[in-house]
Amino acid sequence: MTFAIPFQNSYADLPARFYTRQTALPVRAPRLIRFNRDLAAELGIAEAPDDTLARIFSGNEVPEGASPLAQVYAGHQFGGFSPQLGDGRALLLGEVIDRNGQRRDIQLKGSGPTPYSRMGDGRAWLGPVLR
Question: Quick check: 59 and 23 in contact, CB under 8 A?
Answer without folding.
Answer: yes
